[in-house]
Amino acid sequence: MGTTETLRKLLDGRYPETRDRVRSWLSEPGNAPADDLELEEHRARVLAWAQELSSQGDTAIGYPVEYGGKGSPARSVTAFETLAMGDLSLLVKCGVQFGLFGGAILHLGTGRHHERYLRDVASLELPGCFAMTETGHGSNVQALGTTASYDAATEEFVVHTPHEAARKDYIGNAARDGRMAVVFAQLIAGGEQRGVHALLVPIRDDDGASLPGVRLEDCGPKLGLNGVDNGRIWFDHVRVPRENLLDRYATVAADGTYFSPIENPTKRFFTMLGTLIQGRVSVSGASISAAKVALTLAVRHALVRRQFGPPGEEEALLMDYRTHQRRLLPALATTYALSFAQQRLVDELDVVFTTDADDRLRRQLETLAAGVKSVATWHASDTIQRCREACGGAGYLRASRFAALKADTDVFTTFEGDNTVLLQLAAKNLLTDYKDAFGELDPLGLAQFVAGQAWGVLTERTPLRKLVDGGDLRSRDTQLDLFRWRHEHLLESAARRLKRGLDSGRDPFSVLVDCQDHVLEAARSWVDLVVLESFPIDPAVDALRSLYALHTIEAARGYYLEHGRLSGGRSKEVVKTVNALCAELRPDVGALVDAFGVPENVLTPSEPVTA
Amino acid sequence: MGTTETLRKLLDGRYPETRDRVRSWLSEPGNAPADDLELEEHRARVLAWAQELSSQGDTAIGYPVEYGGKGSPARSVTAFETLAMGDLSLLVKCGVQFGLFGGAILHLGTGRHHERYLRDVASLELPGCFAMTETGHGSNVQALGTTASYDAATEEFVVHTPHEAARKDYIGNAARDGRMAVVFAQLIAGGEQRGVHALLVPIRDDDGASLPGVRLEDCGPKLGLNGVDNGRIWFDHVRVPRENLLDRYATVAADGTYFSPIENPTKRFFTMLGTLIQGRVSVSGASISAAKVALTLAVRHALVRRQFGPPGEEEALLMDYRTHQRRLLPALATTYALSFAQQRLVDELDVVFTTDADDRLRRQLETLAAGVKSVATWHASDTIQRCREACGGAGYLRASRFAALKADTDVFTTFEGDNTVLLQLAAKNLLTDYKDAFGELDPLGLAQFVAGQAWGVLTERTPLRKLVDGGDLRSRDTQLDLFRWRHEHLLESAARRLKRGLDSGRDPFSVLVDCQDHVLEAARSWVDLVVLESFPIDPAVDALRSLYALHTIEAARGYYLEHGRLSGGRSKEVVKTVNALCAELRPDVGALVDAFGVPENVLTPSEPVTA
């Protein structure tokens, strides 16, 4: 069928062969998601799968060619995204090992770390942990409690957990498989606190016993992702050699002299964190894939399941009810939209990591990743839930895959950056850019921005144009105009409110807290706009784009109406057009999910039984 | 603290001692929710708990005094609601055994069934199933496939599963414990189809082996509620004696003569189903309790957890961020609101089942139960999810209770009536009532209503008043006016649209499908109104009522603005007032969740560890 093929091409983007390779692995017998294993069995299965993938060379795609890789972050993320259609514990295990652990060595370490470790990481000879989060600090990484004090006498760092809240927590690979950890700790060198840095710390010997001074504990069963062995780590004055510091952004000389090419400690910290952005981009892509699996299940169910109907006739298909169309089709259109936005995000990631990208491009990537990750993971949670409900009792059986999809993706909204915190990060960057337009650069973000001075220009700008209430609602230009207007208006008014608060002499933190919901909405509206812009200009996805756009406008119509940007009549027209688009897309809905290319193997709902 | 006590009194309503009795049972060691058991262990534990409750006489509260009960449906539902703070598998097991199985015998059977079975049901000597749902039919019960054909030669009914889609599915107690089932089947007597009726069919012998002609299968692990043994049942010409027909609404004489006091088969069917409404009311109450548990966990976490903050100072409590207040406080206010609405629902249930209530009261109860159950169970799903996210990684551990809360309550949105179908039922009744106001009674519901004729009057009514854009947003009267306006406007315009569609000669089913989203919104707005009305007039809950009301208006402000019922400025004032109310309630938030009276025993999050 032509439609499916055209759509598949658009969805698969630049790397169809990478996707097909993973699809074909998932389709092999034995590689379907596990839904029936005990904790330890599941962990063992996941490890074995990861080993198989690594033996096929599929786990180093993002690493440099000299270490067995293909030097392609974009293909690496694309493969990861596709793997997310299968067992999500396997996905996260791979993310921890090859993405976070290996990625930290790659991006924060230097040549000798790469030379010594990267091959073993890719081959899983050296299973490792990314020990950043602590019980007391998840989002605010700058305030971590673990310390790494340099002892010039022995040329070692002493890694220590000073109090209970500073234990490393929820660390993947820590409970069972990890042999080494990248530990994020407050570096103390030359008698001074130098901020958070990362070091390599061995945690288990070759027999799997924990090393002296290292205490390990299993986090035990989790809500989901039980094939991943998350654990806790305490360090009791554990000594590691000086060269274990991942020293791309800072070095400590034998005598304890600290040097970093980035003088400002906050800028240094955010630069280091910034290199780890691939994890966030990967989770974003994975969540979109999970939504595709859920939609494929729910749409196919709705195309065979009948319930109620006109008297005396065959019962109607669920898919023919408007409520059911409303439930599934906007979510389907949004999933397409986010797929295209994800492609753009992956392209930007590739540019930043394979070219000599400047700060502006890096910050642009950071903003986009933060925004798309938040929106995509919330979308996945919501979509999987609505799809489960749309399948009724059948969707509640563990065999239906909804159990795993729901449970496993749940944490996507809070790991690799809590969504609320990420939207704030995006907002901070957008406000900084906004200020840039007036000639001020403040890379340190919102707090400083709020505390800044030269905002006078803001109030002198001409008021935002009010567009006339016209234009075809189905045209891309009209849709973009509406999205842009909402974003500009939200951002400008947020900036004004912040400025007003500061001008009145209130303390910056409380000014910021007061505007927090407004600031978040500004970021959200920007993501909406970027997502809309990402749609390819292709008649095959015109109706999907309109449905995404108008459904988004419908949800925000209170804002448009409040500000006179939509009239009451026009707003009602938006609602009607959403309904009309659902009806128009109804005949193609099977093709629309087929185009996702979810391997049949991973779709194992209880068979729909019909009379 | 005065606030907690006052609020607890309001929340506990008429039956504080019933609630406290269950709270005290839940607080006993060994009665905390199970989060670490294998499937069969969990099932065994749940059965043992249910036996313990029954040995204490707590499972027959709703049954007549002569069978060991207390004749109080209200107290029964209240006890059930409170039990929902604990292990939800136990709750659903009790619901299946004492509520659905026992309730069907009580309400559809007659004296000899009560005499013979009710004591054994209450004591769990006779574990039983409520075998209504089939693989092919969940919502549309009228179209079930199982048959029960009367054989006058032997004075027996022959119960049969004619095809695969007619197997009974997801039936609680069927996989392991059930000895007998109330089976819903198409009755065939005197050579004629008589519609769906219920009969008692033994399914297992005393040793637990399935009886001849009965095939039983375990549904296996589910997304949640794994302490309940759901299963499938097939009948192969199973014979049961004539007296096994639950014959309150229809009898079959020895010679096969069928008689029912309710002549109209559809009316008879809905009357029979109507008596089973307690299950729906119970699930509604249970979901509100589950939301209370989640909110207690998340609010307490937010009162100890600090993250980020003003430079150089202690980090700020999560609860002091506006985004966090926005996340939790409207959900908290809505939980209060739904608690009060649930009290009203339980009161109406009690009146209908303990007095000689007329059809009007019964239909009113049906509408209210359908509406509140939908809104409450969706609210619970949403609230539990937002609370999980608000607890970050700690909320993702299985020990945190969020795993069980999420998984176990998930099915509440689709069992005891799929929420979408229930909102349609509510809408049907509201539209029928609306028509009644013009002198037409059509108890058969929307389809017939749509097909009806005498709607002419509708178009002659005066247009809905447009109230002036005034009144204190925090006053109950202003809030009620706004809620009423929205509901009346939605209902009247839905009725007009339906009429227009019919007048144009289109077929009624497609007219209905076209208006489905509108009709559902009308029902939803009615539930909102009823919930708002249910708030006690007491200064202790004034701010909570305003927050619930204005947050609801905020969410629907697009509609108000579209129809000129709110001005842009007024709408912005609503948003601001929601923020202000969050800030005002902030100091009391600990007391607000303490007032829920969730036993400490069931709150077992991983201890918040602080520095």
UniProtKB/TrEMBL annotation, chains A, B:
It comes from Solirubrobacter ginsenosidimutans. InterPro entries: ACOX_C_alpha1 (IPR055060), Acyl-CoA_Oxase/DH_mid-dom (IPR006091), Acyl-CoA_Oxase/DH_mid-dom_sf (IPR046373), Acyl-CoA_oxidase (IPR012258), Acyl-CoA_oxidase_C (IPR002655), AcylCo_DH-like_C (IPR036250), AcylCoA_DH/ox_N (IPR013786), AcylCoA_DH/ox_N_sf (IPR037069). It is found in: Peroxisome. GO terms for biological process: fatty acid beta-oxidation using acyl-CoA oxidase; lipid homeostasis. Residues 18-124 form the Acyl-CoA dehydrogenase/oxidase N-terminal domain. Residues 129-238 form the Acyl-CoA oxidase/dehydrogenase middle domain. Its EC number is 1.3.3.6. One of its GO terms (molecular function) is fatty acid binding. This is acyl-CoA oxidase. SUPFAM superfamilies: Acyl-CoA dehydrogenase C-terminal domain-like (SSF47203), Acyl-CoA dehydrogenase NM domain-like (SSF56645). Its cofactor is FAD. Residues 274-431 form the Acyl-CoA oxidase C-alpha1 domain. Residues 477-603 form the Acyl-CoA oxidase C-terminal domain. Its main location: other. Keywords: FAD, Fatty acid metabolism, Flavoprotein, Lipid metabolism, Oxidoreductase, Peroxisome. The keyword Transferase does not apply. Belongs to the acyl-CoA oxidase family. It comes from the Bacteria. The keyword Transport does not apply.
